[in-house]
Amino acid sequence: MDNLYRLHIPDKIKYPILISVPHSGTFIPDEISAKMNEDLITELEDTDWFVDRLYQFCHQEGIPMIIANYHRWVIDLNRNPENKSLYNDGRVITELCPTKTFNDESLYLEGNEPDNDEIESRKKNFYYPYHVKVKELLNEIKSEFGQALLFDAHSIKKQVPGIRKEPFPDFILGDNEEKSASKEIIKIAYENLALNNIGEFTHNQPFKGGQITRSFGDPSNNIHSLQLEMAKVNYMSDDETKYDCDRAKNVQEKLLKPLLNNLGKYLLNNK
């Protein structure tokens, strides 16, 4: 399959960090969309809208980025490939190949949900190529710098009743209960986020990182991973439909750039 993802690789990599954007893609192949609820795929709820645009500044900062082109409803790159739940607290978790939205709406026309053969095909064609490329890029970064950090970038509506009744915090740092990165790296990320004057911050609650963060984080092998979940209103309009340049610039300048630069400097100075 062509065009599974886009790579933004600077001519010279400054920091040993890879930005992963697995959920901003919007493409659904015709053979899949023909089986889906037309109203839902027109709106494409559950998309991490414009996260790729929000992190475009990383190219100038010398930080590479990989961006998935396919929508998470084709297959969710941040779910366990064997469809095992990432949480055991009773919350609603969409499947590897989702059949419902976060708000429990059926994605497929009745009787058209993907069967096991279809799921295996999507894993082969869409899921594994992204994960293989992330691993390849991390290994290349580690070979050059001695270590690497995967920064998995996400966003979510401020309120998703299907997941929980309360509004989400503005920023949620996930590190799989401090297992996916070294204590020093987590401390830098935590302090940068905790000291922000933009919005509310939490650590591993209600999200502690998905499959990408958990599977690639291997601090004992000098490969670290963090997930940052962000409420969309921090860089989008109040109704969460449009990119807001002023809000985006504010979160870039006050939070994301300092955070990534501080992480990068630490990695360079502590090989």
Write the layout of secondary structure elements.
Elements (H helix, E strand, L loop, with lengths): L4 E4 L8 E5 L8 H4 L4 H6 L7 H4 L10 E4 L47 H30 L2 E9 L14 E4 L8 H12 L6 E3 L7 H6 L6 E9 L13 H25 L2
Parallel strand pairs: 2-3, 2-4, 4-7, 5-6
Antiparallel strand pairs: 1-3, 5-7
Helix pairs in contact: 5-7
Verbal overview:
This protein is of the alpha/beta class and 271 residues long. The chain is 32% helix and 14% strand. It contains 7 helices and 7 strands. A 7-stranded mixed beta sheet has the order 1-3-2-4-7-5-6. The radius of gyration is 18 Å and the shape is globular. The termini are far apart.
What ranges have pLDDT less than 50 throughout 5 or more consecutive residues?
none
Report the radius of gyration as a whole number of Å: 18 Å
H/I helix tally: 7
How much is the average pLDDT? Answer: 94
Indicate the percent of residues in helices: 25-40%
Query: Number of folding domains?
Result: 1
Write out the CATH superfamily name.
Answer: Zn-dependent exopeptidases
Strand content: 5-15%
Largest sheet: 7 strands, mixed
Number of strands: 7
CATH class: Alpha Beta
Secondary-structure-derived class: alpha/beta
* Biggest sheet strand line-up: 1-3-2-4-7-5-6
Write out key terms for the chains shown.
Aminopeptidase; 14% strand; N-formylglutamate deformylase; N-FG_amidohydro; seven-stranded mixed β-sheet; 7 helices; alpha/beta; 7 strands; 271 residues; single chain
Quick summary:
Helix content is 32%, strand content 14%. By secondary structure, it is α/β, with parallel strands linked by helices. α5 links the parallel β5 and β6 (201-203).
